Amino acid sequence: MEKMNRVIFLLKALPVVVIFLLLLPNSNRILYAQTPSPSATPTSAPNANQNQSQSLSRYEFLTLIIGTVSAIGAILSGFGFAGWRKSKSLEVEFLKLVPVISPIIERLIDQTKDEEEKKRLLVIKKDFEDKFLRLRKQKRASQEARKWLSNNRENLADQAVAHALANESCPQNVRDKFRLNINRYLYGIQESLDIGDFDFLHELDIEEALTKSFYEKALNFILEEKVSKNKNLSADEITEMKKYFDYTIQNVL
Predict the structure, then answer these.
(1) What dotted CATH number matches 142-252?
(2) pLDDT less than 70: residues of the chain
(3) Are 32 and 95 contacting, i.e. CB atoms less than 8 angstroms apart?
């Protein structure tokens, strides 16, 4: 299972890496286009073709920066470093890199004299900032949801088992194993909220004690009665948890 996951990660990373490699041969030209020598003396006034070339250079430079960041993150994800994946996701890395990339975009906007180019760069800047705000909001909601689930997991497992087996006569050892498995699924959802993807849920490797319908009943009970109707959780926190509960029920059980 672990080897298969690594293959999947590498396949996910491949398109980004290819784009990065295609841009790499032009990196020197792009970088030097941004930093003209102060001692250089212009031989003639810039014409329209030179302005277009400069515009493309700035555009390529910005694409190269963002492509490099994406490629490095994708490669790391592809090799599946357990420690890295355990505590971070690509979204988290993106949030950390925003203070590095934002000043680069600002400098490009300040340096350009072409109004059309400046408009394009401002659109990129806005898209970049919007994504940052959206991911930051989502990450905060995920962390709060994870904290709530961690604090209530044991109690939720007890209530879910009591609900799912209310009209069933099960040996105590089967009931105990069923509760343990529900707790493990909840732990998988809890950690997935921290990591930011579904892959951890497929690594649980749980040996079922009862048929799938009992697990669906237990997890749906938690989602519908204890999460969705919880007044102490924000709408964003409920949305984040619902995403992982739904995925577990539909794709993991």
Answers:
(1) 1.10.490.20
(2) 1-96
(3) no
